[in-house]
Design brief:
By secondary structure, the protein is of the alpha+beta class. 25% of the residues lie in helices and 37% in strands. It contains four helices and twelve strands; from the N terminus they run H-E-E-E-E-E-H-H-E-E-E-E-E-E-E-H. The structure holds the ligand O=S(=O)(CCO)c1ccc(-c2ccc(C3CCCC3)c([C@H]3C[C@H]3c3ccccn3)c2)cc1. The site of the ligand O=S(=O)(CCO)c1ccc(-c2ccc(C3CCCC3)c([C@H]3C[C@H]3c3ccccn3)c2)cc1 has 22 residues, from strand 7, strand 8, strand 11, strand 12 and helix 4.
Length: 239
């Protein structure tokens, strides 16, 4: 993908999102708004030109899967409709490379707001951990809104286009079996950080949006992580 016109932006945004995901939720203004088992979901209340764009950060720990497996199922278009319940249609507009694609998604309408679509590049990458060089176990998927000739903004004006930046950062922790036995899924833990900022792109009542975020994000992360566990549990481990 290094040759593609988008590459410099993909490289920059992915690095920025990795740094942002690694920042704790301790300092300052993150508000815990949902908890479910190991999942903790935080938000900041922010508005841009009167539009709710509340940044969201979730942390979660899932046993029995690797960071690669979690990111693979998040990135791949083949499984998206199995776990993403808020989209009506999804199309891959361009396959930039094996690890980079451009998606157009039409989201279900959130009454009384008008229906939205999202056009974004999606990039999957393994990240060498600068702090721990032999930790080759961190993977990231970064999704960031973009433009594309085959999905012009004002094509038919039917949908308002959202502007989003999303990052799923997953780290595999291995509890090596005592007796030097082969690693099994019971020895695996995946530490997940999910960050998202969605600008609704046009007017939507703050109260409605905040209610939808509060309902949809915990549901989405819970459904997605359970889906990946179920898909992987009887398959060979992929790091
Ligand atoms: O992580 S991803 O990249 C996974 C690939 O799909 C992602 C996640 C979320 C969105 C998205 C897009 C639009 C909306 C709103 C804004 C005004 C009306 C629709 C929302 C709000 C509704 C919230 C929500 C939260 C979680 C999942 C879906 N819906 C979220 C897009 C992509």
């Amino acid at each position: 993908a290094q040759s593609h016109v988008l590459w410099p932006e993909i490289d920059r945004i992915t690095a920025e999102q990795l740094h942002y995901a690694r920042q704790g939720v301790g300092e300052g203004v993150w508000e815990l708004f949902a908890e479910d088992g190991e999942m903790r979901m935080y938000k900041r209340e922010e508005e841009v030109n009167g539009l709710v764009v509340d940044p969201l950060k979730a942390v979660h720990t899932v046993k029995g899967v690797t960071g690669f497996e979690m990111c693979h199922y998040f990135f791949s278009p083949d499984y998206r409709l199995d776990w993403e319940t808020t989209i009506e249609q999804m199309k891959v507009l361009e396959k930039v490379s094996d690890d980079t694609m451009i998606f157009l998604q039409i989201h279900k309408r959130v009454w009384p707001a008008s229906q939205r679509d999202a056009l974004f590049w999606s990039h999957l990458r393994q990240v060498p951990d600068s702090r721990d060089p032999d930790a080759q176990n961190i993977w990231i998927v970064c999704n960031h809104s973009t433009e594309h000739h085959s999905a012009p903004e004002k094509s038919n004006g039917k949908y308002i286009r959202v502007f989003l930046t999303v990052a799923l950062v997953c780290q595999t922790m291995i509890e090596p079996p005592k007796n030097g036995a082969q690693i099994t899924r019971d020895d695996l833990t995946c530490k997940i950080t999910y960050c998202s900022v969605v600008n609704p792109g046009g007017w939507a009542p703050a109260s409605v949006l905040r209610a939808v975020y509060k309902r949809e994000y915990p549901k989405f992360l819970k459904k997605f992580t359970h889906y990946v566990y179920d898909q992987c549990k009887n398959k060979p481990i992929r790091f």
